[in-house]
Amino acid sequence: MIEITNLSLSRDGVKILHDVSLRLPQGRLAAIIGPNGAGKSTLLHCMAGLLVPDHGQVYVNGQDIHALREQSRALILSLLTQSQGAVPRLSVRDLVAFGRWPHHRGRPGPADHAVIAEAMTRFDLDALAQRSVDSLSGGQRQRAFVAMAYAQSTPWMFLDEPLAALDPKYVRDIMDRLHNMTGPDSGQRSIALVLHDLSVAARYADFCIAMKDGRIVAAGPWREIVTSELLSDLYDTPLRLAELDGAPVVVGL
Amino acid sequence: MRALPVALIGLVLLSGASLLVGATNLWNTPLDTGMVLAISRVPRTLAALLAGAGLALAGVVVQQSVQNRLVDPGLIGTPEAAMLGLLAITLIAPGAALMVKMSVASLTALAGTAVFFMLARLVPRRDPMLLPLVGLIYGGILGAVVLWLAWATDLVQFISIWRTGEFSGVLRGRYELLWIIAGLALILFVLADRITLLGLGEDYARALGLNYLQTVLLGLGCVAVTFSVVVVTVGAMPFVGLVVPNIVSRWRGDNLRQNLPWVALLGAVFVLGADLLGRVVRWPYEIPAATVFAVFGAALFLWLLNSRKARHHG
Q1: Interface of A with B in 115-134 (CB under 8 A)
Q2: How much is the ipTM here?
Q3: Is the domain of A223 the same as that of A133?
Q4: Residues in chain B whose beta carbon is closer than 8 A to a beta carbon of chain A?
Q5: How far apart are CA B181 and CA B193, in angstroms?
Q6: Residue ranges making up the domain that contains B166
Q7: CA-CA distance, B253 to A133, in Å (whole number)?
Q8: Does residue A81 lie in a domain region?
Q9: Contacts of B263 in chain A (CB under 8 A)
Q10: Cβ contact (<8 Å) for A88 and B128?
């Protein structure tokens, strides 16, 4: 369970988060949606402890995330973010193996190797194990980074736009795998992710956090709170939540 | 894995050649051969190996810290910052012990490199060429301050020794500080995983449990001490920290746990090779190793830039 109380954050004098409060239950796939500049990514980084708020607290599983050292935090939550610098020339296996680093701090044991092997297989990376990450396609690279976060074996996973610039095939591939992780056979991980594709969110998310102008507009179980009206208000453009062959889709009108 | 024996044989052969080649002919000299070896040739060879290894390792640390492979600590103001400290302490306390001067130089080098690190956080990352240019300008400004200060105090000749790296002045008793680099290399080997993590960027490094600022400071501290030692004993030598890490990264990737020894080894071999070449091209006169290296380094750098483009289009 994540409990956020009265979170405010400014950057360069501009207020990005206004008094955000939120309760996020465990074992869900929670989509953070909202227009550009709503503060979605900032909220996620704040929840991950990487940004320090001006006011307010974030409790993850009862622990104040900003009072923890990086080392302890890395055992509670993992993060997938948009890397900005040079893509590392690590083999896929070495990259995934770094997911275990918070557990062994440089001396991996048999248990670590077992988790790495399982993560490699789960994300279909065995054939790519020795390939350098910088030689992979965008979809393969993203899968490798998700596998690294998965190998970290944390109860919470935060993903900032994991689908950016991915083909529909990879979108489906990654979302299927993420959704499976919240199931009982994968230890019921809890996932929060920033999504832009509303149809993807409608299809996979079971919890919705709708944000606009640094505030939470609505938060709750997806099926209960998300309607065409909510989405249209949120994005200031007519949108319709419909069904196509039994699957939810969101279309612009 | 045939590369390691080849590299080690190369190291031994180069070192052997370095002991034999010089202005004095070992077999036909009025001097005692053993003396020439012990006082001049062995120290000179060791100095080139240690300086080369240290400069190459420093290159990796800075490149990983700012996530940009085109940055060389020798070209972003680190040596100039060390010179500034040396000059300042020479003016304030001319009689200070060498270790005191060294410590001051290390501190100013660390401060100068830390400022560059903060600049790097402000520079947009879309174009990787931007940061090295910012570094060149920043280093140029620091260099101008050093030169002005030296000119105003009549010490220009004094600083010229620091500005161009060469090994002809290396004698027993005048290079031993460079052994500090061996200690720093050991520290960096221990930190190897952490420095690899720095290369993933601050967000990932911290999300994976790394104390980011502490690691950056430790790494840059090693870089600063390396540069102050090198500047004091043999003089600045740009391009080593640029060329060697790029060759190793392309060849073997960025997992430093496995590759730091290669960086050190290739750095040592390249700098000794440059020194040796400088000794023979116009024997019995010498060309500074830094000059030789800059010629080859610049050519290699252009090649790296060019083939980098090809990768993007392919």
Answers
A1: 132
A2: 0.93
A3: no
A4: 66-69, 125, 128, 193, 196-197, 199-201, 203-204, 206-212, 249-250, 253-255
A5: 20
A6: 3-313
A7: 10
A8: no
A9: none
A10: no
Does A94 contact B at CB distance below 8 Å? Answer: yes
Identify from A12, A72, A78, A84 which residue to disrupt to test chain B contact, counting B C-beta atoms within 10 A and taking the largest count: A84
- Residue from A70, A105, A142, A145 to probe the interface with B (highest B Cβ count within 10 Å): A70
| Cα distances (angstroms) measured from residue B190 to each of A106, B198, B268 | 9, 14, 20
Domain match, A63 and A114 both = no
The boundaries of the domain holding residue A138 are 88-153
Which regions of A164-238 does DSSP assign to beta strands (E)?
Answer: 190-194, 207-212, 215-221
| End-of-domain residue from the set A104, A138, A153 | A153
d(CA A138, CA B93): 58
How many independent structural domains does chain B possess? 1
- Residue A113 shares a structural domain with residue A197: no
Q: Which of A138, A153, A168 is the last residue of a domain?
A: A153
Same structural domain for residues A163 and A121?
no
Q: Which two tokens stand for residue B203?
A: 């967000």
Check A48 against B207: CB less than 8 A apart: yes
Per residue of chain B (314 residues), give pLDDT as tens: 578 889 899 999 999 999 988 877 777 777 788 888 888 999 999 999 999 999 999 999 999 999 999 999 999 999 999 999 999 999 999 888 888 999 999 999 999 999 999 999 999 888 888 999 999 999 999 999 999 999 999 999 888 889 889 998 888 888 999 999 999 999 999 999 999 999 999 999 999 999 999 999 999 999 999 999 999 999 999 999 999 999 999 999 999 999 999 999 999 999 999 999 999 998 888 999 999 999 988 888 788 777 754 444 33
One domain, residues A164 and A124: no
Quick check: helix, strand or coil at residue A155? coil
